Amino acid sequence: MNPEMQPGTSHRSVLLRVLFGALWFIPILFAGDIIVGGIVGAVGVIVAAISGVPMTGATGSAAGGAAAREFFQSYGSAVMGVEILLTVALSLRGLLPGTAKFRKR
Length: 105
Fold this sequence. Notes:
Radius of gyration: 21 Å
Order of helices and strands: EHHE
Number of domains: 1
Helix content: over 70%
Distance between the termini: 16 Å
Strand content: 5-15%
Mean pLDDT: 90
Strand order of the largest sheet: 1-2
Largest sheet: 2 strands, antiparallel
C-alpha cells in the first residue's frame, strides 16, 4: 500500500529531514573513524610484531597509534568523504531515523 494512502501517516518537512541527516553525520563520523583507526592500529601492531619489535602494552599502543595517525594524515579526507557519502545515501533512502519522507503517527 502506498504510504500516502495509509491512514495515520503524514509528510515530514524537507528541512527537518535535512537537519536529521546532518545530525546523523556526527555519530557516523565517530563510528567510522573508530572502526578504521582500530583496524589500521591493529595492522600496525601486527606489522611491528612481525618485524621483530618486542611487544609490550606500551610498545603495542605506540605502534598502533603511530600507524593510525600516519594513515589518517594520508587518507583522512578520503575516509571523511566516504562517511559523508554514506550519510547522504542513507538519508536520501530514509533509512536513518528522522529522514524518512513519511512519519507514522
